[in-house]
Amino acid sequence: MSAFWIATIGTSVIAFALKYSGHSVPERWLSHPKIQRINALIPIALLSALVAVQSFSEKSQLMIDQRVVGLSVAIIALFLKAPFPLVVLSAAVSSAAVYHWL
Amino acid sequence: MAFGAAAVANGFSVLQACLLSLLTFSGASQFAVVGVIGAGGSAISAIATASLLGTRNALYGVIMAPHLNVRGFKRVVAAQVTIDESTGVALGQEQRGIDAVKKGFWYTGFGVFVFWNLFTLAGALGAQAMGDIRAFGLDSAVPAAFLGLVWPRLTGKFERILAVSCALFAIAMTPILPAGLPIIATAFIAIVIGMKR
């Protein structure tokens, strides 16, 4: 089985298990303030790391290319309070434009 | 759209992209899987990163369960549509009573589920027809999507410092650690900081 299938099925199974367990465990198990706080911080850490790695690396090598432009445009769009689809679209269009010119 | 396109751009098939949207159904986790695999990470790293991002859905379940009060198959369905959006809308209705909370949860959950899956299919088919993904900017669409997901969470100075630190840490570790690990490692930074603070 390819890594793609393992990742697809493994992620799906665990994702559902997490959702279902939340609905089934006693509330007090997960309502501890520390758990709540960690729960708010984990997505910030992981998503920020993903932004960085996806923008500045390719296969474990650091590099700067058209994606920097896409990321910069996305940041500007977010500062201007653009909706999510527009943020992604503006990053893609600007990145593609730079890719064609270079 | 962005997810389906990103999945195909990173080597997933249209079927795999659609299954991720149907079965995983949690945007951040899905982008994480395709992002980590696309960056050359192992299946285990991809699953671990996606699952760490999925833990918040468990907490949403804990919050929603007393409001919904469902069992059996209905609980299975409720669990599957327990995501940022459905929980957020439901809790936004709290002052209008328990019926409004339930309505908010179910309508949002099903609505997002239907559109998310339709757009995944459209995006995946579109990307499949494209060829060189860089020519269409898809290589930038993925990090932009992550940025769009994290942005609303950066509510204070502490959150912003954590975000920038984790980004820099992950970049610094990328040439050293196997692909995927620099990302997972930042989750442990978050856990340690959360324990101490």
TrEMBL record, chain A:
Keywords: Membrane, Transmembrane, Transmembrane helix. The lineage of its organism: unclassified sequences, metagenomes, ecological metagenomes. It comes from freshwater metagenome. The chain crosses the membrane at residues 39-56, 68-101. InterPro entries: Brnchd-chn_aa_trnsp_AzlD. Pfam families: AzlD. This is Unannotated protein.
UniProtKB/TrEMBL annotation, chain B:
GO terms for cellular component: plasma membrane. It is found in: Cell membrane. InterPro entries: Brnchd-chn_aa_trnsp_permease (IPR011606). Keywords: Cell membrane, Membrane, Transmembrane, Transmembrane helix, Transport. It is a multi-pass membrane protein. GO terms for biological process: L-valine transmembrane transport. The chain crosses the membrane at residues 7-25, 31-54, 105-127, 161-194. Pfam families: AzlC. Belongs to the AzlC family. This is Unannotated protein.
